[in-house]
Fold this protein.
Amino acid sequence: SDDLRLPLHEVDRLLWRPGWVLAPAKDYEAAHSRIVSEDCWIIDGLGRRESIPARLARATIIVLVDLPLWVHFWLAAERQIAWAKDNLDKRPGGLDEMPPTKVLFETIWTVDRDWMPAIRDLVGEAERGGADVRRIHALSDLAGFKL
């Protein structure tokens, strides 16, 4: 976002309250709608499933991080270990408490199994509608990624 000079919005900051409690849906939706209605933005993360179509409909560039499930588990485990050792520079959602590992892994599984097929379809539709889509399928693609 620094190179592009666009405001970066981490969707986890909208989604979670302290203690990893979900924000009320109306609060999340109001904040998400406000951001998506702005002229320029970068949104990092998935957020609530029902908010994804509105975001994709307004996006001009979509970066779909579509890594294998095992990579998501590996990255999450590395982050949990770093967090437990108090060696994590950037905490998701700006939260102080580490997410419960079991819930985190269940969420990763559910997103991969239940959300990603529909997200891939939505991204394909957006691409056919003119959005510039960049797909990340490997960590090597992610390491040096620039828009």
About this structure: The radius of gyration is 16 Å. The mean pLDDT is 93. Helices lie at 11-15, 25-37, 52-58, 69-84, 101-128, 139-143. The chain is about 50% helix and 15% strand.
